[in-house]
Write a structure and sequence with these properties.
Layout: H1 3-16, H2 21-57, H3 61-70, H4 88-110
């Protein structure tokens, strides 16, 4: 039984109290047990999470102290790359555009930059930009 439903039942029983205190006491006991179990579960989860982070960081104590002091939250997850829903024609069109872009980039890298700048200078001279 969930915490919310137990609270609701207790509230209803308290309003009509004609049913007898026995059922009310039983439900209140269940509620107390559930609250205690939830607290124990939360403690167990936090302990397991701490152990997992300790295991992940490694055996050096200095690193774990620095990380514990610096970053309190774990790093965000890496975004999952979405698959595009493209028609085969559109996919081919985009592929052709990318190939053209890559070819232009390769051509730009292959040609040397402008050789008009004067690169003849000695150690004492500072080159002047055009």
């Amino acid at each position: 039984m969930k915490l919310k439903t137990l609270k609701k039942k207790i509230r209803r029983l308290e309003t009509r109290l004609l049913e007898g205190p026995k059922k009310l006491a039983k439900l209140k006991g269940k509620l107390a047990g559930l609250v205690k179990a939830n607290a124990a579960k939360a403690k167990r989860k936090s302990t397991a999470r701490a152990a997992a982070t300790r295991k992940k960081t490694g055996s050096s104590a200095a690193k774990s102290e620095v990380k514990a002091a610096g970053a309190k939250r774990p790093a965000a997850r890496k975004k999952v790359k979405r698959k595009l829903n493209l028609s085969p024609e559109r996919r081919e069109q985009l592929a052709a555009a990318m190939r053209a872009r890559w070819a232009a980039k390769r051509a730009a890298e292959a040609t040397p930059p402008d050789s008009s700048a004067n690169h003849d200078f000695t150690i004492g001279q500072v080159p002047q930009s055009p």
